[in-house]
């Protein structure tokens, strides 16, 4: 590709970040918080870092309107570590828990929890994750300690737009929001725990945001490793039980400030616009590009698609896209094809550039493909 051209990364994680955030990080690189060192070198017990991480938390609380009765932790290990930490923190007195499996990542959450509790799978696992069974068919254990679900499946491109909270009033809801946190408002009265890897919409990899209601902290199983015990982090100085990813926290802070200035309403509006641009275009191509997900559950963040369901043509598409400065479009190995992850950091111009390339590729390859059928 031309080194001077703008490159748009559609990576499912780590995500692309706004140019304004990267520019500020560049300008401040050698002098984080006035310390004269980089954010990678700053001492995590220093007053400067304690002020930094407190500011990051305060700004995230403002952005998402997080109530005072929730703790905000910035941990490590990704959302995957929380697959084990959640049951260890919530199943001490009641081993029963509900898991709704709607894709690759909620399946892994379910499998980890099975090692620690009595897990009820709310629906039967389908061969392909392209929709969600109607809530009337869900089998929910009423006396379970919690109900776990994933709000947006990064790999399968399935997202809840109207989760049936009213049908689950008696449940403590635990939600993996790794791929769509900070893309729309959250009604915190509906949740007990929300967790998310930062590397989709908030910052670089290395930070995991865990937001826990106060009454759910302090009841970890006896077997819980200290690092997985939420209460250990809450009670530690600066809520840092161990050395945090200082660079990641700093970068998350810059991006949260950027999002706070932009406003969550504007962010949500752009998320809808970008998704509609791509879906509307694909739906107009007479099957050249197809998205397998039920329209009612199409993700605004992760959009898997096939190119004539032809792996050879898809390889060509991916190669030419990379040369055009559109990178990381390859789909996950479990589903194949292609995938465009269009998180908050992806500008509208990036999605437009992708649509323009897709149309050019279709014009150049549609006749050749159909002629061979």
TrEMBL record:
Per its UniProt record, what Gene3D superfamilies does this chain match? Aspartate Aminotransferase, domain 1, Type I PLP-dependent aspartate aminotransferase-like (Major domain)
What does the record give as its pathway? Amino-acid biosynthesis; L-serine biosynthesis; L-serine from 3-phospho-D-glycerate: step 2/3
Is Zinc-finger given among the entry's keywords? no
Output the Pfam families linked to this UniProt entry: Aminotran_5
Record-linked SUPFAM superfamilies = PLP-dependent transferases (SSF53383)
Top-level taxonomic group: Eukaryota
BP GO annotations: L-serine biosynthetic process
Q: Which cofactor does the UniProt annotation name?
A: pyridoxal 5'-phosphate
Check the record and name the PROSITE patterns matching this protein. Answer: AA_TRANSFER_CLASS_5
Q: Name one GO cellular component term.
A: cytoplasm
Q: Which UniProt keywords apply?
A: Amino-acid biosynthesis, Aminotransferase, Pyridoxal phosphate, Serine biosynthesis, Transferase
Q: Which reaction does it catalyse?
A: 4-(phosphooxy)-L-threonine + 2-oxoglutarate = (R)-3-hydroxy-2-oxo-4-phosphooxybutanoate + L-glutamate; O-phospho-L-serine + 2-oxoglutarate = 3-phosphooxypyruvate + L-glutamate
Q: Which InterPro entries match?
A: Aminotrans_V_dom, Aminotrans_V_PyrdxlP_BS, Pser_aminoTfrase, PyrdxlP-dep_Trfase, PyrdxlP-dep_Trfase_major, PyrdxlP-dep_Trfase_small
* Entry similarity comment: Belongs to the class-V pyridoxal-phosphate-dependent aminotransferase family. SerC subfamily.
PANTHER family according to UniProt: PHOSPHOSERINE AMINOTRANSFERASE
Q: Which named protein is this?
A: Phosphoserine aminotransferase
Q: What is the lineage of its organism?
A: Eukaryota, Sar, Alveolata, Ciliophora, Intramacronucleata
């Amino acid at each position: 590709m031309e080194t001077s051209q703008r490159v748009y990364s559609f990576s499912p994680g780590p995500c692309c970040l706004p140019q304004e955030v990267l520019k500020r990080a560049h300008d401040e690189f050698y002098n984080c918080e006035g310390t004269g060192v980089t954010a990678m070198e700053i001492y995590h017990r220093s007053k400067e870092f304690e002020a930094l991480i407190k500011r990051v938390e305060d700004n995230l609380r403002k952005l998402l309107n997080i109530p005072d009765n929730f703790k905000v932790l910035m941990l490590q290990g990704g959302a995957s570590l929380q697959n084990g930490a959640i049951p260890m923190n919530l199943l001490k007195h009641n081993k029963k828990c509900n898991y709704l499996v709607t894709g690759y990542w909620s399946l892994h959450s379910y499998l980890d929890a099975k090692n620690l509790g009595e897990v009820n799978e709310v629906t039967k696992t389908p061969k392909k994750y392209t929709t969600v069974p109607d809530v009337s068919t869900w089998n929910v254990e009423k006396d379970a300690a919690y109900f776990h679900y994933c709000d947006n499946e990064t790999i399968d491109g399935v997202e809840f737009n109207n989760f049936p909270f009213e049908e689950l009033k008696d449940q403590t809801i635990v939600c993996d929001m790794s791929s769509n946190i900070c893309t729309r408002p959250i009604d915190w009265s509906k949740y007990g725990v929300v967790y998310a890897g930062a590397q989709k919409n908030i910052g670089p990899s290395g930070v995991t945001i865990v937001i826990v209601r106060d009454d759910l902290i302090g009841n970890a199983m006896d077997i819980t490793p200290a690092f997985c015990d939420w209460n250990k982090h809450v009670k530690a100085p600066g809520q840092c039980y161990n050395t945090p990813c200082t660079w990641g926290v700093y970068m998350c802070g810059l991006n949260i400030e950027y999002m706070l200035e932009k406003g969550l309403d504007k962010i949500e509006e752009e998320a809808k616009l970008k998704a509609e641009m791509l879906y509307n275009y694909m739906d107009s191509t007479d099957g050249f590009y197809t998205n397998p997900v039920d329209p009612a559950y199409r993700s605004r963040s992760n959009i898997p698609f096939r190119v004539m369901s032809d792996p050879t043509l898809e390889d060509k598409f991916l190669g030419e896209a990379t040369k055009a400065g559109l990178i990381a479009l390859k789909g996950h190995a479990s589903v194949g094809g292609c995938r465009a992850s269009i998180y908050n950091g992806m500008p509208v111009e990036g999605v437009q550039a992708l649509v323009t390339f897709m149309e050019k590729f279709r014009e150049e390859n549609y006749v050749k493909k159909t002629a061979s059928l």
